Amino acid sequence: MSTIPSRSELSELALDTARRCGVDVGSLTGDVTASSPVNGLPVASLTWRDPAYVDEAVTRAGEAFRAWQRVPAPQRGALVKRWAELLTEHRDDLATLVSIEAGKITSEARGEIQEMIDICDFAVGLSRQLYGRTMPSERPGHRLMETWHPLGVVGVISAFNFPAAVWSWNTAIALVCGDPVVWKPSELTPLTSLACHAVLAQAIAEHGAPEALSQVILGGPEVGRALVDHDGVALLSATGSTRMGRAVGPRVAERFGRSLLELGGNNAAVVTGSADLDLAVRGIVFAAAGTAGQRCTTMRRVIAHTSVVDELTDRLAAAYDRLPVGNPLAAGTLVGPLIGGAAYDAMTGAVAAAVGDGGVLVAGGGRVHEELAPEAFYVRPAIVRTDRQTAVVARETFAPLLYVLPYDDFEAAIELNNAVPQGLSSSVFTSDLAEAELFLSAEGSDCGIANVNIGTSGAEIGGAFGGEKQTGGGRESGSDAWRAYMRRATNTINFSGELPLAQGVDFTV
Predict the structure, then answer these.
(1) Residue 2 has pLDDT above 80, yes or no
(2) Taking phi first (over 0 means left), then psi (-120 to 50 degrees means alpha), and beta for anything else, what does residue 482 get?
(3) In the chain, what are the domains?
(4) How confident is the model over 207-258, as pLDDT tens digits?
(5) Quaternary form (predicted)?
(6) Can you list the alpha helix ranges (DSSP code H) found in 255-368?
(7) What are the residue numbers of the active site?
(8) Exposure of 285 in the CB half-sphere (CA atoms within 13 A)
(9) Angle 457-475-441 (CA atoms, 0-180°, nearest 5)?
(10) Dihedral pair phi/psi, residue 172, rounded to 5°
(11) β-pairing, 181-184 with 214-216?
């Protein structure tokens, strides 16, 4: 492991990097400390906004909306194209900030910024494809069609684990759909948020577009609540825990706003007796240990056929023992730190509960590098072998903790996959076409994402992202997720000169 950077080294790196992205770091003064999970020490001091500022921001965004909705969609796409070019220029800088504030290894952090560039590319193409439909009318001389129009101000509340990409999913699509965005980022990743916003602000300025098309508000939970409750926010996209979603959803619904919720996941892979175990091990290790187990799509359960479960467990344990854990900015590191002490406590508590329920810890679980970084929380990813899906197994633990369970019957494996409150991502490793098709069928996985012979993580932007049940039911990113950011109107045009009524109604006066 490379030496953990000191407080001054990491702070200087963070501020210099943010400055290169366009952030006025000289103005970053305040009584709120932003720390890095890399060493657990402060990197910057900032000022949080109070909830009253949300109303000012939403008002400005509403004014920007009235101008932006009149701009043709392909011209809106041109702004997003320029944003993608600037993101490409600043890819390494933004990735460095992601590593510093979220603890991601360099390749994953760069991948997150690449995801931003990719969704911009998708949105640029989308700007010429906001299609409606023309339907046959039952009345002679009539045309029936639907049109899509900009919706209004979009509020985005994002989480620490994807401090840049999730905002960009919403923002790139919202901008081409004609909507401004007000962003309340995680309190844990403020410099990343400011840098991302600064890059987009440059594109907005170059195009002469309304400055308030993109706004970022640093603040605590009370700022998020103000954004949730504001009548001027037409769509509220929130990423976080299921507990957070239980609070956000009803509050937005009470004011008849729209919400797009991306919440918890307890994702599983079924490994059948016919699976290629070499492929399965590679897919499982990345999905379960990547991002230190802090993705919403992290694999948390492996449901393996009894004929392969022992060999698979041994292979996974051996692979876990080889995982380099340490400074995410250092070459060769594959597992960075947990975001903080609460995540570590949750992981150790879950391991203890699983072992208490009869499980066996077969790999990892301990804290490492404590002497080098006593304020940071580096752990070895853990594997617990268990014969049953207990309450702790069915509960999401946001850390690198993987449970391995056996099964005999494929239908029983599907039932285990589905027998958790969450429904985000799932996969099956098999060489049997019938098993693959059954897993993808209506009788198979009940998740929003169901994969064959890959893990549960690493979704591409072309598909709609989201899940079912306590995952929230929202869809972001690709496919037709753009419809959430627009309003639909059904139009009937009468060019007949007569006035026949639908369904044969006669109302002659």
Answers:
(1) no
(2) alpha
(3) 7-263+472-489 (3.40.605.10), 267-461 (3.40.309.10)
(4) 999 999 999 999 999 999 999 999 999 999 999 999 999 999 999 999 999 9
(5) Homotetramer.
(6) 277-289, 309-322, 341-356
(7) 262
(8) 24
(9) 70
(10) -60, -45
(11) parallel
